[in-house]
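# nightly structure sweep
# worker-07 picked up a monomer target from the shared queue
# config: single-sequence mode, recycle default, output format = C-alpha cells
# input follows
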Amino acid sequence: MQICVSKIHRATVTDADLNYVGSITIDQELMRAVGIKPHQVVRITNLSNGTLWQTYALPGESGKGEIILNGPPARHFQRGDKVIILGDAFVTPEEYKTLNPKIVFVDDKNKITNTEQHGELLSGWTE
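# output follows
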C-alpha cells in the first residue's frame, strides 16, 4: 500500500526554475529531519492555488532553507507560495503496523519550529 510517511508543513517556496529538468530541491536539513530520501517521490500541495504536484526530491544545501520547484511545476509554484510537502512510500501490511510518520513544522524561512510523530494513529489499526 502507498502511505504518506512524512510531511513538511507550510514551507515557503524560495524559487522556481522552469529550465531545470524536474524535481523539487529541499534543504538537506529538512529532508533529514522528516526522513525524505534523495529521489523519493513526494507530493507538493500549493496552499496559494490548490495545485497538487508529484515529483522526486533532491537535496539542497543544508541550512539554506531552499524549497525550489524545478521544471514544469515552476508554472504552478512561485517564490513565496506556502506548500505542504508529503513524502510517500510503499509499505507492506507488516511495515504499516510499525510506521511512525514524521511531521516537520517550519517558519517563513523554512527553519524547523517543531517536529511530531504520529505512529500512535496507526498502532491498533487492524483492517
